[in-house]
Amino acid sequence: MSLPALPDPSGADSSVMRERVAKVAALFEAEAGPLRWPGRRDPLAGLVQTLLSHNTTDPNAFAAYDKLQDRYRGWEDIAQAPHGDVANVIRVAGLNNQKAERIQELLRFVKQEYGEYSADVLDGMEFDEAFATFSHLKGVKHKTLAVVLTFDLGKDVFAVDTHVHRVCQRIGFVPEKATAVKTFQRMNELVPEGLSYQFHIHLIRHGRKVCSARSPKCGECFVREMCRYGRSNV
After folding, report:
1. What distance in Å separates the CA atoms of residue 95 and residue 80, rounded to the nearest whole number?
2. What's the DSSP call for residue 8?
3. Domain locations in the chain?
4. What is the CATH number that goes with domain 14-36+158-232?
5. Could you read off the pLDDT of 146-178 as tens digits, one per residue?
6. Would the pTM count as exceeding 0.85?
7. Phi-psi region of 94 (alpha: psi -120 to 50; beta: other; left: phi over 0)
8. 23 an active-site residue?
9. How far apart (Å, rounded) are the C-alpha atoms in residues 67 and 61?
10. Who's near 17: CB < 8 A, 6+ residues apart?
11. Cα gap 164→96, rounded to integer Å
């Protein structure tokens, strides 16, 4: 018995796609369980950690952040330290010269703009305002801000990283050639209210363990029947 056709994300009505995303999100919750946001964390620390995470693994980013905290007494010391010293401390994260520049630029911006080393202003901002305020800074774009708003401040923003972008394309939530920014914009229209944090984590774990960039394990995938890519590759 053939399965019903899946809607084409390029032309399907938004209500159809919202229903489809909701069904897949429910499958993930049934398979992996519900997830609860653990609580507020310092958004400035979150911004620094996310800048360190670009183009590297989580363990390397965490190690670099720990080294920063061990080496310097606070944000002011990091902001005022010689660029080369900061770059050397975070070498484990890769692209250390670029990341040191971006971290120091961020710290100097919040100090000049708000009079202190704090990004608590993000508590009162939704994504569009946060993007307008911070996106002139190098490296602080859609993914970085969405991660901080979602994970550190508990806002209902669906963040899109490399893994989430790939899974959304393969399942067919967005067109195959959609950019990461287009995927971010579209998914924030489609993800059910209140599920951004949980669904992001479910998809990122799925992307790492099952729906990998190379040799995805479609035969082991519990959402294969709901996936345009999976149906065509098994």
Report:
1. 20
2. P
3. 14-36+158-232, 43-152
4. 1.10.1670.10
5. 999 999 999 999 999 999 999 999 999 999 999
6. yes
7. left
8. no
9. 10
10. 7, 9, 173, 190
11. 25
* Class (C level, CATH) for 43-152: mainly alpha
Contact (CB, 8 A) for 122 and 130: yes
Query: H or E segment at 59?
Result: helix 58-71
Token duo for residue 204: 């990122």
- Calpha distance 96→64 (Å, rounded): 10
Q: Of the candidates 147, 157, 165, 159, which has an alpha carbon nearest to the alpha carbon of residue 127?
A: 157
HSE, CB side, 13 Å, CA atoms: give it for residue 224: 13
Marked catalytic residue, from 143, 155, 182, 209: 143
> Residue 62 carries which side chain, given as an amino acid letter?
F
C-alpha to C-alpha distance for 132 and 125, rounded to whole angstroms = 10
Q: Tokens at residue 215, please? A: 């040799």
Residue 209 near residue 32 (C-beta atoms within 8 A): no
Place of tokens 């950690």: 49
CB distance 191 to 158 below 8 Å: yes
Quote the CA–CA distance of 174 and 169 in Å, as a whole number. Answer: 5
Looking at residue 205, its amino acid is: R
- Per-block average pLDDT, block size 10, for the chain (234 residues)? 81 92 98 96 98 95 97 97 98 97 98 98 97 98 97 98 97 96 98 98 97 95 95 81
